Amino acid sequence: MAGIPPRPLTSHMRQPSLSANLGGGQSPALLARVNEKKAELENLKELRDLSAAVAAQMEALEQKLATLSDGTEAIAMVLSNWHNVLRAISMASAKLPKPAAAAESADAGVALPETLVRIPTEHAPTLQAHADNAVEEGSG
Known about the structure:
- By secondary structure, the chain is mostly helical.
- The protein has helices at residues 9-23, 28-95, 100-108, 124-139.
């Protein structure tokens, strides 16, 4: 038996332990990596949910900004028409006949324009009745 070289036992012993690691037990490094990947997956799911919430808030903000923009345009249109309104009031008050009291106040140094009041026509019959009653009470 001296002619046969002995086989190395280390290679023969490693083979069963390698297959045992792959089949049943896992190495601590591999187990740690799997746990790390699971934690990363949970973090990514949380990030996805938070991103969806931020996207929903951004869409709501977009709708509010669109409403604000429309309101701003309406206000700009009203403000751009104010000079026309003021000019119309000025022209209307310049063409009104001046009563005698206004002529006397002009002599005093303060000339005030005639007051312009708009009354909705749907209330005209009620207002006319009140005015008639006031005239009757004043004269009676």
